[in-house]
Design a protein that fits this description.
463 residues, mainly alpha, Growth Hormone, Chain: A, 21 helices, 82% helix
Length: 463
């Protein structure tokens, strides 16, 4: 504990706290559809795949917007960018509070794209927090900042209970004071020490274009235009959106996609963070449908699971600082694959199912921290961009998980295929990491502990 406090004092801890609050409240807004999905579906008469699509759109939005938001961070002060993100995130709960009557699915999907700005905060909150700390403690610092994943706990506790008293539509307004709190913290404490380069107008144009076109794509898929309707259009949406986002990036940043390590890290994070956010957005309807749990109790389980994963993320970064993220992930990816496949094969009852979900969230949390400890070592000086790119892969994984589960439920009457698919992907990522292990350990092995506690000059140049 003494070493941990020493590490925190070696940098700007107030800015770290502000970044944590920014990501925490952003995460709360980001996945708020999940714990309310049953009520929304009842009012709108949604099919299982429509319900999955509604909960998955904010996840996909955050995944794609993280890239252009991260690119904008490379050119613009992070504090100003974070405040802009908070304003955009506050639009959906404000609209639902003020509008009369029940909104349509179309409106909820458009607002879902804006909710994704809560998750896109990842591309700003993490590098801005890390910019005030020396490189040897990045695993711990980025893990603490990203523990803002605990925002999902607020979703599970707050929104289903409020919805019973005021309705799901108005319960979402509870996010507004939380967003205001994080805005005040950013104004008072946040400081961005990262070096900046590139054109702000060009980066801002790319970000705005990606948001507008993403809204258009979601509406096209929902309306079934151009042959993109139904399940096929939903499954193709991330592919089309990803191509769009890459196209608007400057050429020098697109070069990172030519690196094998970029794709390898993206696959790993699509399993760890994709599993965390995808399951967090869908675990409430999953538990309700599988085990007949009430919406309030399902929300409480969501909160408990999200709390587990979020709290273990800093531990994952701390552990990776000591044994390397490579070694940690070799164990964690194997465990994720085993848990997913066990769920698919055993189709357990309520006690066994919740036990497997707890085990999955433990691995998700530790794996998220370990992954970004590796990112901070592999891509020094490309903080915003790589946070956005790798984070986007996690969000895309988080989009496909509820889509796979919802589609399997609607088509086959069971969720086992969805779990089997993600178990197979986790096993494939483990095999890939085994093949890369020796090469990655050359740069991933930790430095001696006594060096890590010393503040370093020029630390602001790091992720």
């Amino acid at each position: 504990m003494k070493n941990v406090l020493g590490h925190l004092r070696s940098g700007n801890w107030k800015s770290l706290l502000a970044c944590f609050l920014y990501f925490d409240t952003g995460f709360t807004v980001w996945v708020m559809y999940g714990p309310l999905a049953q009520s929304i579906s009842g009012d709108l008469g949604l099919t299982p795949s429509q319900k999955a699509f509604m909960t998955a759109v904010p996840v996909l939005s955050a995944a794609l917007l993280r890239v252009t938001f991260g690119n904008l961070y490379q050119a613009m002060d992070g504090r100003r960018l974070a405040l802009m993100g908070i304003i955009l995130s506050s639009i959906p709960p404000a609209v639902l509070l003020l509008m009369p009557g029940v909104p349509s699915l179309t409106l909820l999907l458009v607002l879902g794209v804006l909710l994704g700005m809560g998750g896109a905060s990842f591309a700003v909150a993490l590098p801005m927090a890390g910019s005030g700390y020396p490189p040897k403690v990045q695993g711990l610092v980025l893990g603490l900042a990203a523990a803002g994943n605990i925002g999902a706990v607020v979703d599970g506790f707050l929104f289903p209970t409020l919805a019973e008293h005021v309705g799901w539509q108005y319960s979402m307004a509870a996010a507004l004071p939380l967003l205001a709190l994080s805005a005040v913290a950013l104004l008072l404490w946040a400081k961005d020490s990262s070096p900046k380069s590139g054109s702000v107008p060009r980066a801002a144009t790319g970000f705005a274009t990606s948001m507008v076109v993403l809204i258009g794509l979601v509406l096209i898929v929902n309306a079934g235009l151009f042959g993109l309707g139904g399940k096929l259009g939903m499954l193709l949406l991330p592919v089309i959106g990803s191509l769009l986002v890459v196209a608007v990036l400057p050429g020098r940043y697109r070069a990172v996609f030519a690196e094998r390590d970029t794709w390898s890290m993206m696959l790993i994070y699509s399993i760890t963070f994709g599993g965390f956010v995808g399951m967090s957005s869908y675990v409430s309807p999953l538990l309700i449908d599988l085990y007949g749990i009430s919406q309030v109790h399902a929300g409480l389980w969501m909160a408990a699971l999200a709390f587990t994963g979020a709290m273990l993320r800093p531990l994952g970064g701390w552990l990776a600082d000591r044994v390397s993220g490579v070694r940690a992930l070799l164990v964690l990816l194997a465990a994720i694959a085993v848990c997913d496949l066990a769920f698919a094969v055993l189709q357990p009852g309520v006690q066994g199912g919740i036990a497997l979900l707890v085990a999955l969230y433990v691995c998700f949390g530790l794996g998220n921290g370990a992954t970004f400890q590796l990112v901070s070592q592999r891509w020094v000086g490309k903080a915003g961009l790589m946070s956005g790119v790798i984070g986007a892969a996690g969000g895309i994984g988080g989009f496909y998980l509820p889509m796979a589960l919802g589609t399997a439920r609607e088509t086959l009457g069971s969720y086992w295929v969805g779990f089997a698919v993600f178990g197979g992907l986790a096993a494939a990522s483990w095999l890939m990491l085994v093949a890369l292990r020796s090469e990655w350990l050359v740069w991933a092995l930790p430095e001696p502990e006594e060096d890590a506690a010393l503040p370093l000059d020029g630390a602001t140049e790091t992720v």
